[in-house]
Amino acid sequence: MAVTSLLDIHLSPDAPADAEARVTSVLAQTRARPGFLSADVVRDLTDPRHLVVIEMWESVEADDAYRAWRATPEGANELGELTGGRVSLVRYEATTI
Predict the structure, then answer these.
(1) Contact call for residues 53 and 40 (beta carbons, < 8 A)
(2) Among 7, 17, 30, 63, which is least packed by CB within 10 angstroms?
């Protein structure tokens, strides 16, 4: 079953001017991973440094494999540096209610 992952990102006030370009680069890597279906990015209307990435994955297993890859030296990225650790992830599955 497909899974939706919401990555809540708060860019640090001292993040470099090219922070969004760096996030775009991270997302390019994400889009290339097995089981990836789609990703959209939305921006908070009251805080332009607050982004939410809405990712769709084929399955929880595909998302788990992606998250495990991100924890390796090969998959490491600079989101922690750009956010000061202000990133959270919540995953959802579709329901019929």
Answers:
(1) yes
(2) 17
Domain boundaries, the chain: 3-92
Q: Which of 46, 89, 95, 43 is nearest to 70 (CA)?
A: 89
69, two tokens: 């890859």
Which residues, including other chains, have CB under 8 Å from residue 13's CB and lie 6 or more apart? 49
Encoded tokens for 30:
């994400």
State the pLDDT at residue 29.
Answer: 94
Q: Report the alpha-carbon angle 94-25-37, nearest 5.
A: 25
Beta bridge partners of 57: 3, 36
Rounded CA-CA distance 91/56 in Å is 10
Q: Looking at the predicted structure, is the pLDDT value of residue 85 above 90?
A: no
Contact 34, 65 (CB under 8 A): yes
Name the CATH topology of 3-92: Alpha-Beta Plaits (3.30.70)
